[in-house]
Amino acid sequence: MVINQQLFNIIHYLTGKNRILDVLGIFLADYLGYFLVLIALILLFSQKNIAERYRWFLFTAFSLVISRGLFTEIIRYFFPIQRPFVVYGFTPLVNHDVAASFPSGHMALFFTLALCVFYLIGKKWGWRFIVAVLIMGLARIFAGVHWPLDILGGITISLMAFFITYFLFPKNKKINQPSA
Q1: Is residue 105 a contact partner of residue 133, using CB atoms and an 8 Å limit?
Q2: Dist. CA 52–CA 111, nearest whole Å
Q3: DSSP label of 176
Q4: Of the candidates 148, 147, 110, which has an alpha carbon nearest to the alpha carbon of residue 130?
């Protein structure tokens, strides 16, 4: 836990040093997710094939429910780790409740979304989403609402939920064409 606190202190130490950096940190920590969801919806509705659009939506929704709705809440129930701003007694840059911080619900949700975009839409958009979500994770540490291990925990949960969905979800099967 010492490394976790030291990493947190290194990243969070930058708050209050520069107003522009603080505003950027607030935006990335609190609002970037809305833009990612909007872009994901645009990518979803740009799919011409209705069946593919439906499959994309179901795969993503199932993955998100497993990662954020199931795994994150179960772990938080059994391991209620306090948030950094509660432990150190400061006001975070973004409004947040004092509920358990491990694992990060933001990371569980948005990293899962990024993995789904990577798998279902393509590598180009997928890498953009992954980088944006990792930046969001750093911003949440910067803002004082998560420890670094919270972010890693959310990413780990995302990977588990994605692969569970990948193995459980029916794959696209080509329709047998009658031979001529």
Answers
A1: no
A2: 21
A3: P
A4: 110
Chain centroid to CA 75 = 16
Locate the domains of the chain by residue range.
2-168
Instruction: Give the dihedral of Cα atoms 4, 10, 15, 21; nearest 10 deg.
Output: -110
pLDDT at 46: 87
CATH topology for 2-168? Vanadium-containing Chloroperoxidase; domain 1 (1.20.144)
pLDDT tens digits for 7-37? 998 898 889 899 999 999 999 999 999 999 9
pTM greater than the 0.90 cutoff: no
- Cβ within 8 Å of residue 50, ≥6 positions away: none
List of residues 6+ apart from 119 with CB closer than 8 A: 126, 162, 166
Distance of alpha carbon 147 from alpha carbon 138, whole angstroms: 10
Would you tell me how many other CB atoms lie within 10 Å of the CB of residue 57?
A: 16
pLDDT of 171 reads 72
Q: b/e for 21-40, b at 16 or more Cβ within 10 A?
A: ebeebbebbbebbeebeebb
By C-alpha distance, which of 1, 4, 22, 18 is closest to 142?
22
Please list, in sequence order, all residues whose beta carbon lies within 8 angstroms of the beta carbon of residue 28, skipping any fewer than 6 positions away: 135, 136, 138, 139
Diameter over CA atoms, the chain: 75
